[in-house]
Amino acid sequence: MQLLRTIGKKLSGLGNHLLPTQCLLCGATLKGELLCDGCLYDLPWVQRYEHRCQQCALALESAGNFCGHCLHQPPAFSRSIIPLAYQHPLTPLIHRFKYRGKLTHGKLLGQLLAQHISDCATHADWKIPDLLIPTPMHWTRRWQRGFNQAEILGQYLASTTGIPLATQIIRRLHRTPAQKELTRSERQKNLRKAFTISANAQQKIIGKRIALIDDVVTTTATMRELSQLLIKAGAKDVQVWALARTMEK
Ligand SMILES: [Zn+2]
Ligand SMILES: [Zn+2]
Fold first, then answer.
1. Which of 38, 169, 190, 201 is most buried, by CB atoms within 10 Å?
2. Which listed ligand is nearest to 55 at the C-alpha?
């Protein structure tokens, strides 16, 4: 598997082993790594949930293939590859990256996601995407923050997998208000027409397998909207690749 070999080679070259580093969670002195083995073990890995939805990765209370939402309203994306639950002690790492601009934390999060993708690439049913598309951020928000965290994770994945990153395919037309207080159908309505595919970009996605990249998946409303847009525009398959997922409904 060429992809796997490429990722393996890139990951083994990570970190400058000449310079000591500190574990980003406990402060232990390390030889180039960004997390010690103990803190790595303590992360909320989704594999510890016995039952998960095959499509959106939500934890299920009992054995089954899909959650109620995916059963009744199947999303346009075919699967989600998400290594971690959005819980302590991962939450502060994501917050320091997103809201305080700590790019070393972004590098660690990119490494964790890339490692998980390389593990998934060993599965027989794995289909390598042709294109990585980060969830677009409205330009005003990006300007305020100075970066789009999904794009940074995407750059990291592109450099480790060799799959091209496309940041100009989808545009976010308006900022969506906070989704937290809304019902599921209000959220989906809120996102309608929030995104558009650039006119000259459509031919780049026809017949292509696409992985949508984000840091955290909460309600899946955004991923549902984006995947539907891409499939309608001619994409062959859309997967979701994200670092973390809220595991409770
Ligand atoms: Zn540690
Ligand atoms: Zn589901």
1. 169
2. 2
Q: Which helix (H) or strand (E) holds 126?
A: none
Distance 237 CA to ligand 2 centre (A): 17
Torsion angles phi and psi, residue 244, rounded to 5: -140, 160
Q: Return the SS3 of 30.
A: strand
What tens digit of pLDDT does each residue of 111-146 get?
Answer: 999 999 988 877 767 788 999 999 998 888 888 888
Structural domains for the chain? 44-245 (3.40.50.2020)
**136 Cα–ligand 2 center, Å:** 23
170 strand-pairing partners: 197
Ligand 1 centroid to 199 CA: how many Å? 47
| CA 186 to centroid of ligand 1, rounded, Å | 41
DSSP helix/strand/coil, 231 = helix
Provide the sign of the torsion angle of the four alpha carbons 162, 155, 241, 116, taken in this order: positive
Ligand 2 centroid–CA 82 distance in Å is 13
Q: List the one residue out of 97, 147, 126 whose CA is nearest residue 1.
A: 126
Over residues 147-162, the mean pLDDT reads 92
How far does the centroid of ligand 2 lie from the alpha carbon of residue 81, in Å?
12
Say if CB 226 and CB 195 are below 8 A apart: yes
What is the distance in A from the centroid of ligand 2 to the CA of 154? 23
Query: What is the pTM for the complete model shown?
Result: 0.88
Ligand nearest to the CA of 224: 2
At 43-74, the pLDDT tens digits run: 999 999 999 999 999 999 999 899 999 999 99
